[in-house]
Amino acid sequence: MITARAAATFEPVGRSVAAARTFVRDTLQGWGLTDIVDDAVVLTSELVTNAVVHAGTTADVVCIRAETGVRVEVADRYPEREVPLQSNGGHHFGHPDREGGRGLLLCAALAARWGVEYTATHKQVWFQLDFPDRPAGTRAAGPALPSSALPIADSRVRVGVVQVDSGGLISAWNDDAQELFGYHPEQIIGKPLTDLAAWPHTPGTGTGVAEALLLSRWEGSYGIRGADGRVSPVYASHLRIRDAEGEPSTVCLLVRDLERAVLQSPMRGANVDTAETAERGPATDAFEVFIGSPAPDDLDGLLQRTVERARDMLDGDAAYLLLATDDETELEVRASTGLPSARQRFARVPVEAGTGRYGSARMPAVHEDLSAVPGAVPLLVNTGMRSVVTVPLKVEGRLTGSLGVAAESPARYSNEEALRLQFAADRIALAVERARLTELERLRRGSLSFLVEASDLLAGTLDRDQTLALMAQMTVPTLASWCAVYTVADQVSEPELSYVLHEDEDRIDGLKALLMKIDPPEQVPTGGARSWSGPYDAAHAAALRTSLRSLSLGDSARPSSGPGASLATASAVGGETVVLPLVARNRVIGMLILGKPTDEHFRQENLELAEDLSRRAALALDNARLYSERTAISQSLQRSLLPPEQPEVPGVEVEVIYRAAGEGNEVGGDFYDLFPIRDGAYGFAIGDVCGTGPEAAAVTGLARHALRLLAREGFGGPAVLERLNAAILDEGARSRFLTLLYGELWPQHDGSAVLKVVCAGHPLPLRLRQDGSVEAAAEPQPLLGVMEDLELYEQTVTLDPGDVLLCVTDGVTERREGTRMLGDDGLLDVLTTCTGLTAGAVAARVLRAVERFAAEPPSDDMAILAMRVPEPEPADA
């Protein structure tokens, strides 16, 4: 029965042999099978060498754990290669010094069983190592040592036992844990272990405390923050268990880090296979063993392993590694252990002259007591470290970084330790630089993809508010923890806070309130990010005032909400805050503010990416502003072309529906109007200018205003249209054809209405009688804007109570779907079903019929004018 399985593939290069050895060793040690690790590593080394060096193909390595032993399979892609086969006389391998077949000779000597299997595409060599018989209670043992070689510990070794439930909360806390860290059980039980643990790994990489608590077994170093606020380094062994009800929890055994030998499993560095020993010789230490192993694929993993091994090599309390920025003028913190890494992550210090310079960057240096030279190593200020040794990382003479190991006691290090650390740094510098360049290339590709996506999103909208929201959402949380956008209306206006976003939505209101209370940053048109301390200073001042009031040390009025909200806001803006100007068309139109939480810093690459984003965002924001301004102007002009409020016509129901084609258009080539001419008389018109858009809208404005003016001067319908025709022709090249239905309406005392209409090239008005019959209410006449001399006449129509007069533009009758068209007949059919409906219901039914006629939205302007003479109310009985 297979109980566990692990597999990996290795490329046909020399370093893959060492990588395969590490893979097998890590796998078997993770399974707790240290007794057979050495034999498995030796056999794997020989078989993988045969695959990647001699066969020249990739090697697939599979580790399988069963109930009785472990099977390791090594397959290559060269099935034709000759290998020793089993014969009747047993195994024949040739001379032991012969290069070929040596791996199989070792398999025969060390493995319980082994074999060779062929397929059409690959050859597989496998071996099985059986579990040794172990006396009860024995897992591993070390050799007898003289007393002087034993690990040093206090006379009273305390082992803290802490149990953590499945939710990460402390459920048990023994007396030794109380003595080590100062907390009584009632103070600590029920709190998350993450509140106490100072995890050594670089934030965002490796395994965190929450992940470690979910592993079946974990062992390593981290810090515990005691009741006095001081972080004590500890060595821990975690074991995940479950109770009788099946509820999982983790038991953590903790000792002081200097007493790690009490819990520490045998070091992996002690189990060095023969091939590695032969390559390095007998004089190797633990750090050199690490240097000889393959580098992790990611830069952060390599740097974190480097600082941890450097600290162990020099028996330090802390270690850190800085890398040079692209321009090599600053060093940036990239990994640390034993230090508050979250606070130092990506902090930068100058390499050369200036306040707080990192003076020991280019040469090895030893500081015996940092208290005598404050600020010599800015990274270690207020950390409790007294002595430090630092060495540079150089590649081809260029400074690429700096590695340091520090201790809490003074005079810990000498030139001898500096030379050892420099030797190690020289061995790792090239691998670090190679990994850094790989990461830089990956980041640049990611940045390009990010900017392309950002540009597409910003180009997809011309709405100002949506552009502001996109700017913030693209930066949070990708580039910053919070973001604010200030906009500037013009050169004399003060910046206005327009948008605020935080990765924690609960903090947005507090952050916005804080920014509203402080002065905005100064407008600087020059490019590049600059620091801004305003939010930090204001937040911490507010938190201090609130705390004092809550303790009755300040004002007598105690705040109702307590200091919690102020402290949360202060924590949110407590890190680095930068201002990026939004410059478009040589004018500052706003500022983009990016911030980090307490004591965090921005990476230089992220700042450069934010600068590129700010330039694109500024142009998109300015485009949105220009579009909004032009849209506002266009809408204002268009609204001026629409009729004012529709008048009430006594004794006649009037309903108008108007739709202009085109996004953002309120007025098109179709138009309507209804206006009083004189007492008891009203003029109405519905028309269609050839074309759509602004050019057609200009003619509609001319026509509507001319109709009102001429009608109120007392001209009849034919005279009004003839003079309008002359005005259109006077426009010259800008003139447009115009179809127009114009009429005058006189409500009568008997409840009817008399209309005099002129239909100049327009779809004929339709009259719906009470009996459901429909007929044309006018005759067609020539359209306007074509001929100079027109002879028009008007026709009189009487609407009886219950009659409806429907006037439409050709956007209704010419509604199409494929080759089908609604047409005059379709409109007539719709109107026939409207008997007894009000004018509003008639217009709505016609509009619904037009919209449902085709799936696509209408592409032409459309106007519907319905007038109905209501029936008289029945007399009361």
Automatic annotation (TrEMBL):
<dbReference type="InterPro" id="IPR003018">
    <property type="entry name" value="GAF"/>
</dbReference>
<dbReference type="InterPro" id="IPR036890">
    <property type="entry name" value="HATPase_C_sf"/>
</dbReference>
<dbReference type="Pfam" id="PF01590">
    <property type="entry name" value="GAF"/>
</dbReference>
<dbReference type="InterPro" id="IPR003594">
    <property type="entry name" value="HATPase_dom"/>
</dbReference>
<dbReference type="Pfam" id="PF13581">
    <property type="entry name" value="HATPase_c_2"/>
</dbReference>
<dbReference type="InterPro" id="IPR001932">
    <property type="entry name" value="PPM-type_phosphatase-like_dom"/>
</dbReference>
<dbReference type="InterPro" id="IPR000014">
    <property type="entry name" value="PAS"/>
</dbReference>
<dbReference type="InterPro" id="IPR052016">
    <property type="entry name" value="Bact_Sigma-Reg"/>
</dbReference>
<dbReference type="Pfam" id="PF07228">
    <property type="entry name" value="SpoIIE"/>
</dbReference>
<protein>
    <submittedName>
        <fullName>SpoIIE family protein phosphatase</fullName>
    </submittedName>
</protein>
<dbReference type="InterPro" id="IPR036457">
    <property type="entry name" value="PPM-type-like_dom_sf"/>
</dbReference>
<keyword id="KW-0378">Hydrolase</keyword>
<dbReference type="InterPro" id="IPR029016">
    <property type="entry name" value="GAF-like_dom_sf"/>
</dbReference>
<feature type="domain" description="PAS">
    <location>
        <begin position="161"/>
        <end position="191"/>
    </location>
</feature>
<dbReference type="InterPro" id="IPR013767">
    <property type="entry name" value="PAS_fold"/>
</dbReference>
<dbReference type="InterPro" id="IPR035965">
    <property type="entry name" value="PAS-like_dom_sf"/>
</dbReference>
<dbReference type="Pfam" id="PF13492">
    <property type="entry name" value="GAF_3"/>
</dbReference>
<dbReference type="Pfam" id="PF00989">
    <property type="entry name" value="PAS"/>
</dbReference>
